[in-house]
Amino acid sequence: MEDVQGSVDTRQIPINRVGIKDIQHPITVLGKDGRRSASIATFSMSVSLPHDQKGTHMSRFIQMLNETETEISAKNFNKMLSSMVERLEAESGYIEMQFPYFIEKTAPVSGVKSLMDYQVNLVGQIEQGHIDATLEVTIPVKSLCPCSKKISEYGAHNQRSHITVGINCSSKLWLDELIKSVEAQASAELFAILKRPDEKYITERAYNNPKFVEDVVRDVADVFDQNDRILRYYVHAENFESIHNHSAFAVVEHDKSV
Amino acid sequence: MEDVQGSVDTRQIPINRVGIKDIQHPITVLGKDGRRSASIATFSMSVSLPHDQKGTHMSRFIQMLNETETEISAKNFNKMLSSMVERLEAESGYIEMQFPYFIEKTAPVSGVKSLMDYQVNLVGQIEQGHIDATLEVTIPVKSLCPCSKKISEYGAHNQRSHITVGINCSSKLWLDELIKSVEAQASAELFAILKRPDEKYITERAYNNPKFVEDVVRDVADVFDQNDRILRYYVHAENFESIHNHSAFAVVEHDKSV
Amino acid sequence: MEDVQGSVDTRQIPINRVGIKDIQHPITVLGKDGRRSASIATFSMSVSLPHDQKGTHMSRFIQMLNETETEISAKNFNKMLSSMVERLEAESGYIEMQFPYFIEKTAPVSGVKSLMDYQVNLVGQIEQGHIDATLEVTIPVKSLCPCSKKISEYGAHNQRSHITVGINCSSKLWLDELIKSVEAQASAELFAILKRPDEKYITERAYNNPKFVEDVVRDVADVFDQNDRILRYYVHAENFESIHNHSAFAVVEHDKSV
Amino acid sequence: MEDVQGSVDTRQIPINRVGIKDIQHPITVLGKDGRRSASIATFSMSVSLPHDQKGTHMSRFIQMLNETETEISAKNFNKMLSSMVERLEAESGYIEMQFPYFIEKTAPVSGVKSLMDYQVNLVGQIEQGHIDATLEVTIPVKSLCPCSKKISEYGAHNQRSHITVGINCSSKLWLDELIKSVEAQASAELFAILKRPDEKYITERAYNNPKFVEDVVRDVADVFDQNDRILRYYVHAENFESIHNHSAFAVVEHDKSV
């Protein structure tokens, strides 16, 4: 049966990336304490294609997912990148995998435990054997407006916010640690279960700790600047404003090597 | 050229609805004061199909959209339903059209004007000549938690909420009136532009006016119960909780004829 | 600390449903052969609230999720409904849980194995002790247009389609069986990995098996009509038309008890 | 009333971008022939913030939208960028506006006219007075698989595809021209209304014109390479595969100045 993809192309146009996307696959995430948790990831996998090759072999990407147990850790992710370019006989490759990650959190006063979900996105690229990977996480928190607090006789508008951070590290940084360090910079952190004493605590903590979206990105950036394992990062914060029908957002990017 | 759709079907299975969906088309919305505003609607249009007919003629739905100027008003919507079943030679028909609608609002203290957007959904059904139409609108507002206020020494958690109402009326009820009557039941309403004195006003008003998601649906239901033009309604409120990563919601439905 | 939610309400308006939504939680799905697979569900849980009660206790819904292992099976789902209304002291309750479900499929010629994902939605309601549950699944397939085939000298337009079925059963019907019976009614079924001989097989099978969106819903309805365990169903098919930028869809609903 | 945003910040961290997003606003789009068409855009507007300034003045972004008629053309977009950084007293600024755009198309055989919708995204950046703008459009088309055609005795799988192009030009390139030149590179273009002779034409044209996702990006790249007004571009094509439940995609990027 003819291999149309394998035939020669004469248009002289190399392709930066070709592959598959929006495929869901079950995965296992390896946590700090050796804990393994199940999740479901949405994958995008692609490779470069030289100018003289008509097409790539799409089914090989999916075979990779179906042959491995796909346990996700920094080490395995790098292996996936290497084996993908080898298998597809490509110079460069790119993998993105997004999945929900759960952490058991303890309510601040009652001590009640509940799971909180975070959206994780691993983005990696391999080019001539060199790997560059970014760990991105979206962390939902509470923000309380300093202006509203200052000018009002009582109360202050507050809302759910998303802090999305992307980091590039020299050595391993566990998801749980990263998330904890970011949540500490919000007006208050979120929990799935809060009993009344917890709700009082969170309400008062947020009121005592007002932050603009600008403050949030600066405070997270400050923490990341002081962490030597982080070589490069971006911090994006978005407030789903409770006095408007639109969002306020801010971004800080920093590459320490520059 | 053979008309496959028009051939006879022998499976003895009538089809409740068949048609098209997810098609965008520009429309004109007719407002209370004769004001015409442009919008873009996403349409779903379908008809019933008797058991002995193989297929419907899909292109006729789109032709209806492309032949008319599609000025939206209660009267025109009913006409669309009638002419659709006539054109498709069907016993019953169904149209759903969703579009953003803008109202110019005036900030409460500074008087600054700005546009606020609302998502409208017109849902209509015609069966043996009888038309039944529901006007649905999603109205973004602010809610402030009564429990959080009561138990905390200062502050109270608040957040953006969506109140979605669906009404069936005996006589015309303008969108602007409907939206205004619903916004008045929230802890506070939203604006695209708020100057500092406005922000103070909204912050304090919300603090003085705490409402659970249950309070919001009850207060809107109360207003609708007293409006004789409304024959049937539902009220759905969703709080994008600022202390959790999930929503709280409540629903009240009432058919006054029952 | 005052229990605001527990106080008395005087507005005389009962609430049909109040609860939480859009919360993600890991689950275990029990399959036919005793196989347990991990997934992540998005939950909506709510109860009725009598007119004289101000609010429900939202944290109890989440506590239910965090206390149980949440192994999903028909039996466990019914238990969740019962224990929810008991715990919330409510007359009626409602749970909806959506999650991806994976089936290992074997390519038709090469025999290569790969996972295929389906979106499942369990919807259940309990009212005065009586439970009514619907199992809904969305099954992606291929449809090929009979009209395009008939009138063209070669080729025929075809596209990805979603068949969404909702069934109410007298006795257990396994997801794998249900999905298989629906896939058989499409022009062809989908696979994550197809080798060239498989691709030839699927292409030719679809061409030999043209179906309008009307044919698909009728053929699935026919299968469900002949299955005595199914008491009530709906079939919704949507073709993401490859010659248009909109969808064609059709719906058949049948309650055998009527 | 205190201006909290205007106070001094001591953290020594400049902010790359701060502003608003996800706000909808009606716009007028200026077409080639002077035709004005109404649309609704979703805006993101942001500016840089120096390290010593605590916050930006968010309401000014929205005031810009509410004060102007916001007629969209290349010239006006550049003016918006300039006036934004002036108004916000910022060194650099960024605007993104996404909106649907409609073109009246004529069916290839019957000549029936209908509207087709395209998603447009204008992305612009101003830095120390220098403006850099990208016009991005997503163009839905049909793709037909060359491999499936070659190996099968009859038929070939085909599907809806999205070609998303982003271009940076030296002089004006009208949306209608750009879209037309891209549609010509697909296996076939799409229409909202096709009569049977049109459907036959499109079906056969696609079958005579098979293209992998790799072919589509190369053929569009080839057209752009030959257009001297285009200085820089990217082409992204995504096939919603009709034999799989995932997409195939390819990307070519080219900066002619490099």
TrEMBL record, chains A, B, C, D:
It catalyses: GTP + H2O = 7,8-dihydroneopterin 3'-triphosphate + formate + H(+). One of its GO terms (molecular function) is GTP cyclohydrolase I activity. One of its GO terms (biological process) is tetrahydrofolate biosynthetic process. Pathway: Cofactor biosynthesis; 7,8-dihydroneopterin triphosphate biosynthesis; 7,8-dihydroneopterin triphosphate from GTP: step 1/1. Keywords: Hydrolase. InterPro entries: GTP_cyclohydrolase_FolE2, GTP_cyclohydrolase_FolE2/MptA. The keyword Hydrolase applies. Its EC number is 3.5.4.16. The record marks C145 as: May be catalytically important. It comes from the Bacteria. The keyword Hydrolase applies. Pfam families: GCHY-1. PANTHER family: GTP CYCLOHYDROLASE MPTA. Converts GTP to 7,8-dihydroneopterin triphosphate. NCBIfam families: PRK13674.1-1. Belongs to the GTP cyclohydrolase IV family. This is GTP cyclohydrolase FolE2. It comes from Arenicella xantha.
